[in-house]
């Protein structure tokens, strides 16, 4: 990693900053890790003596991306991913901040584990790391975790992600208690009694392939339950990885009623359908499962109209031995930090979705849900910045990626657009050379 000067002038790029309603040519001056000025092109030349100049012609200059749903696997599962490798994958994909889920070993259900994650992040991370604490002790769904202590230690949300909170009374208490600390509850919505034994969406392809299905109702019934709890609790509900048309409608109606609910969608649910399982590809096995074409269309429309607030990768690394097995035995989940932005931009181009819509969903929207001061290029803000080339075409190879794991359904895809540079706190942490190499390392 190269040494970064204290002053950087980024010129010639197109700035998209939804937090400040900016979309157009701007120059940015970074000083001492913060954004000092954002002006019309050429306006900073006489104020930037001694600054390193970065030519951003033909590039988009974005607020550093915020991924509110990542599994970094450390502590306990370092053979899949570490905080070092996961955050390297993050900055390679333009993400400057990641919220890491609690399903580590030991589970992040107490202040000691939260503090350990933050300490490791200070030592090795390239991106900002924001821990998510567990809802329940050991993710067992019986007793609340030490939410107050974890909040004081640094968590930004609570979630048992990977497992649903099946007990409605526990979810009610979680929403009530989290509201005392202004924490959102990130909910993995799935009724275990309806999903039991399922490995794919209950639909055309589960029938064709002879796989046990997970009905859409497994997700939708749990979402309906938790929305009904909101008026009782004063809590904030965030629906993680929405996958069905019915869930979209439930969230839309709840928002119309003014309930405090937000939602996220993953790039793989926006891009793929259940048909991706046609060859029993375990890299397309995830939870919630890939759904029907009608569900996918509803997710895209919900992103466009704002029903879905955020795009999150649900980056879930697994060792090859956990994926190269029979389909039913393979673990759920895919990696996604390095491919998310090109995939979403390609979708936006295909569907004529305004770029600021997808940038908002990957920057300021998740930052606001988590209550963190990121996702903006405001003057005075921490200089987390992503430079993205929207036109270059390249072929993604999971084997050559920065993540420790390779379980991507997009391996071998030709992608449009690539991150050229990522700055975290004004420090260049990902400078990609013109041939795809990491320059200056």
Q: What would you say this structure looks like, in words?
A:
There is one protein chain. With 441 residues, the chain is α/β, with parallel strands linked by helices. It is built from 14 helices and 17 strands. Helix 2 runs parallel beside helix 3.
Computed CA radius of gyration, to the nearest angstrom = 21 Å
> What is the overall pLDDT average?
95
Number of helices: 14
Structural class: alpha/beta
Count of beta strands: 17
Residues in helices, as a percent range: 25-40%
Low-pLDDT regions = none
Query: How much of the residues is beta strand, in percent?
Result: 15-25%
How many strands, what sense, and barrel or not for the largest sheet? 8 strands, mixed
What's the end-to-end separation, in Å? 4 Å
Shape: globular
In short:
The chain is α/β, with parallel strands linked by helices and 441 residues long. 30% of the residues lie in helices and 22% in strands. Strands 1, 2, 3, 4, 5, 15, 16 and 17 form an eight-stranded mixed beta sheet that branches. The chain has a four-stranded parallel beta sheet with strand order 9-12-13-14, with helices on both faces.
SSE inventory with pairings:
Elements: E1 7-17, E2 22-31, E3 34-39, E4 52-55, E5 60-63, E6 65-70, H1 83-92, E7 95-100, H2 111-124, E8 128-131, H3 147-153, H4 168-180, E9 184-187, H5 192-195, E10 200-201, H6 204-209, E11 213-214, H7 216-233, E12 236-239, H8 245-256, E13 261-265, H9 267-271, H10 293-305, E14 310-311, H11 320-323, H12 340-351, H13 355-362, H14 364-370, E15 385-395, E16 414-424, E17 427-431
Parallel strand pairs: 1-4, 1-5, 6-7, 7-8, 9-12, 10-11, 12-13, 13-14
Antiparallel strand pairs: 1-2, 2-3, 5-15, 15-16, 16-17
Helix pairs in contact: 2-3, 4-7, 7-8, 8-10
